[in-house]
């Protein structure tokens, strides 16, 4: 289903978003899921003692993963806009590369419910999870 | 309208002293100016070019001047939702820090954001938060993000923070928090 062209489109889409560039987020396709990657950088730190990623950085990566997955599944014309998001912080984000992936839990005509998870070295140990609703533009 | 009236709660600040240090001496309470400076120096917020404009008695205000690096939709110029999430998280964190009787580290447990309307492109964002309650383990905070009109917010949020009582708290020169 997914091919090289789709993968390139996702990468270009993220590259075009200034805030994702600011955070250093890139994306690739893994089968039918968009996987976002965010290497560690000093300007992502919220607590320099540990050092740990800022909660806002974690929320931003998760939200970007959710939007990227909705745009991949429903097309860029769906223009997903966040209505509400809830982020659960499960572990502290360490100074290493982070990954995030999302899936549509329920797709309605105007709203989609999306779940996203973020992890670092071990995919089975998520550091944060997001649930959110996004408004979409219904296909004509 | 003050944030207290908007949120309809009276402030409950920390009533529990932190654990005494080795020699039975509690750590001195940091000044609000120290809290503001510490929280503005956080790498992520400094990277966004955010400014802490108030940190006192469990209340905080943060300003984020508009900028190219905040944009989430290159076609419309609207800021990324993550920017609002990040600043609300941080603003709530400042409110919690300024409500504590003695300084201690804490971590965000969860954060819920409701996006009430799209932010107007190329306009500065303002954030306000207040800490509603501090228990022995958890602090509760709420906040809002707005642009021109405070009573027509871009987003509102609710967050809970886990307090790490008794943990060493570093000097201003070598930390921030988030």
* Second-tier CATH architecture of chain B: Roll
Strand order of the largest sheet of chain A: 1-2-6-7-8-5
Percent helix among the residues of chain A? 25-40%
Largest sheet of chain A: 6 strands, antiparallel
CATH architecture of chain A: Roll
Characterise the protein shown here:
The complex is a heterodimer of chains A (140) and B (178). Chain A has 140 residues and is α+β, with helices and mostly antiparallel strands. Chain A has helices at residues 4-15, 18-23, 55-74, and strands at residues 26-30, 33-38, 45-47, 52-53, 81-89, 98-107, 111-119, 128-135. In chain A, strand 7 and strand 8 form a beta hairpin. Chain B is of the alpha+beta class and 178 residues long. In chain B, the strands form 2 sheets. A 6-stranded antiparallel β-sheet of chain B has the order 1-2-6-7-8-5. In chain B, strands 3-4 form a two-stranded antiparallel ribbon. In chain B, a hairpin with an 8-residue loop joins strand 7 (138-146) and strand 8. The longest helix of chain B has 17 residues, at 81-97. Chain B is globular. Residues 1-11, 17-27 and 172-178 of chain B have low confidence and may be disordered. Classes of the chains: A alpha+beta (140), B alpha+beta (178). At the A-B interface, helix 2, strand 3, helix 3 and strand 5 of A face helix 3, strand 3, helix 4 and strand 5 of B. Strand 5 of chain A pairs antiparallel with strand 5 of chain B, so a sheet runs across the interface.
Summarize the structure.
The complex is a heterodimer of chains A (140) and B (178). With 140 residues, chain A is an alpha+beta fold.
SSE layout and pairing:
The complex is a heterodimer of chains A (about 140) and B (about 180).
Chain A: H1 4-15, H2 18-23, E1 26-30, E2 33-38, E3 45-47, E4 52-53, H3 55-74, E5 81-89, E6 98-107, E7 111-119, E8 128-135
Antiparallel strand pairs in A: 1-2, 2-6, 3-4, 5-8, 6-7, 7-8
Chain B: H1 3-7, H2 32-40, H3 43-48, E1 51-56, E2 59-64, E3 71-73, E4 78-79, H4 81-97, E5 106-115, E6 125-134, E7 138-146, E8 155-163
């Amino acid at each position: 289903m997914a091919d090289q062209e789709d993968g390139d489109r996702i990468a270009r889409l993220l590259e075009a978003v200034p805030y994702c560039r600011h955070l250093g987020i890139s994306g690739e396709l893994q089968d039918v899921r968009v996987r976002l990657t965010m290497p560690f950088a000093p300007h992502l730190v919220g607590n320099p003692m540990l050092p740990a990623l800022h909660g806002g950085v974690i929320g931003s990566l998760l939200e970007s993963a959710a939007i990227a997955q909705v745009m991949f599944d429903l097309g860029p014309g769906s223009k997903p806009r966040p209505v509400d998001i809830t982020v659960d912080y499960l572990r502290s984000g360490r100074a290493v590369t982070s990954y995030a992936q999302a899936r549509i839990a329920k797709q309605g005509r105007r709203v989609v419910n999306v779940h996203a998870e973020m992890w670092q070295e071990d995919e089975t140990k998520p550091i944060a999870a997001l649930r959110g609703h996004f408004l979409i533009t219904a296909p004509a | 309208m003050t944030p207290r009236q908007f949120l309809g709660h009276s402030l409950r600040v920390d009533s529990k002293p932190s654990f005494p240090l080795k020699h039975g001496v509690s750590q001195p309470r940091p000044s609000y100016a120290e809290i503001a400076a510490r929280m503005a120096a956080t790498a992520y917020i400094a990277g966004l070019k955010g400014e802490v404009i108030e940190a006192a008695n469990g209340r905080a205000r943060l300003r984020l001047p508009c900028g190219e690096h905040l944009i989430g939709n290159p076609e419309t110029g609207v800021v990324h939702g993550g920017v609002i999430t990040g600043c609300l998280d941080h603003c709530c964190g400042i409110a919690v820090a300024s409500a504590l009787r003695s300084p201690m580290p804490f971590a965000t447990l969860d954060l819920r954001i409701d996006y009430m309307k799209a932010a107007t492109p190329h306009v500065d964002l303002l954030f306000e938060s207040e800490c509603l309650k501090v228990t022995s383990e958890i602090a509760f905070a709420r906040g809002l993000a707005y642009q021109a009109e405070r009573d027509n917010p871009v987003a509102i949020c609710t967050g809970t923070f886990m307090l790490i009582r008794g943990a060493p708290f570093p000097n201003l020169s070598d930390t921030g928090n988030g």
